[in-house]
Amino acid sequence: MFALLLAGNAVTGTALLMAPDIARLMGGQNDLVISAYEDRLAQMRVEIDRLHSRSYAQAGDINLQLQELSQQQDVLLEQHQLVRALVDKADRLGLANLDLDMSGPAEFSIVTTADGNPDLAATTDNVVRMMAETQQAMTGIATAATQRADNIIGELGRLGIQTEIPDMTLTGMGGPLLAATGSGESAALVEDANAVMDALMRYKAARDSLTLAPVHMPITGNFRQSSGFGNRKDPFTGGRAFHSGLDFAAPSGTSVFSAADGVVSFVGERSGYGKVVEVEHGNGLSTRYTHLSGYLARVGQKVSIGTPIAKVGSTGRSTGPHLHFEVRRADQALDPKPFLDAGKRLLAIL
C-alpha cells in the first residue's frame, strides 16, 4: 500500500512539474490546427471572391445584352409606328386590300428558361423576327404602290395620256457638318419609311391622273353595245359611213354619267346628235354624250366620275333610245373602246 501511494505521489509530482511543457505542446498543436484552418478559410474566401467576380461579370454581360435588346425594342416600336402610319396612308389612297396585319402593337417580352433565367438568344430571335415582319410590311406597301402606279402609267401611256408624276429624284439638302447622334438603325428606318412614302405619293399622282382619263363607263344597268367605232353600214342610207363613237342601247330616261372628272363645256343641241352634253377633262381630252332626252348638268359645272349629267333618249339622227358616247382629242374623235377596256383592267387591279 505504501509503495502504491509513493508511486502515485511520484507520478502526480512529475505531472505538475511538466504541466507547462505539456501545455506548450498542446498549445503548439492547436496553433497548427488553427493556422491550417485559417489557411483553408483564406483559400475559400479567394474562391468565393472569384465566383462573385465571375457572377458579376456574367450579370454585367446580361445587363449589357438586355440594354441592347431594349434599344432594339425602341427601334421596333418606332418601326411599327411608322408602318402603322404608312398603312393608314395606303388605306386612304385605296390600297386597303393589302394583306398586312398591323392591327395590334408590337409586343416585346423577355423569354426565360425553365429555371427562370433570361434566354437572351430566344429573346433576340423574337426581336429580329418582329423587326423583319414590320420591314416586310413596309416592303409590301412600297411594292403594291409601285406596281399599281406602273399599271396606271402604262395603261394611260398607251392611250396617249401623259401622267404627271412628282420628281422623286430631287435630293437637294445641306446644313453644317455635325457629329452623328442617335441610333443608326433609327436613321435607316426613317430612310426606308421615306422611300415607302415616295412610292405612295407616286401612286397617288398616278391615281389622280386616272380620274381625269375618260376610262369609266358612262352608263350602268341593262344595256348592250349596239354599234362600234369606225366605218359601218349607215342605218338610214344603208351605205358605208364613219361612226365616231360607241352606241349603248338602253331604255329612255336611263342615267348617263361623266366618264371622268372635268368641267361641263357644252349643253345643247348639235346637228345629227340631237341633245348633247360635252365635258372637258383638262388633259386635251373631252367626252361627248348625245341623243339625250334631258340634261342634268349645266355649263361650267364641275363633275366627277359617276356624276349624273343627262338622260338616255333618241333625239337627233337616231333609230331608238341609246347613248352615243365619244372621246375626242383636239376635236378629233378617238375610239372609246380602248379607254373603257383600260378602265376595266385598272378597276380589276385597283
Automatic annotation (TrEMBL):
A Pfam family assignment: Peptidase_M23
Cross-referenced InterPro entries: Cell_wall_metabolism_enzyme (IPR050570), Dup_hybrid_motif (IPR011055), M23ase_b-sheet_dom (IPR016047)
Leader sequence residues: none
Domain M23ase beta-sheet core: 242-336
Record GO terms (molecular function): metalloendopeptidase activity
PANTHER family reported in the protein's UniProt record: MUREIN HYDROLASE ACTIVATOR ENVC, PEPTIDASE-RELATED
Protein name: M23ase beta-sheet core domain-containing protein
Native organism taxonomy: Bacteria, Pseudomonadati, Pseudomonadota, Alphaproteobacteria, Hyphomicrobiales
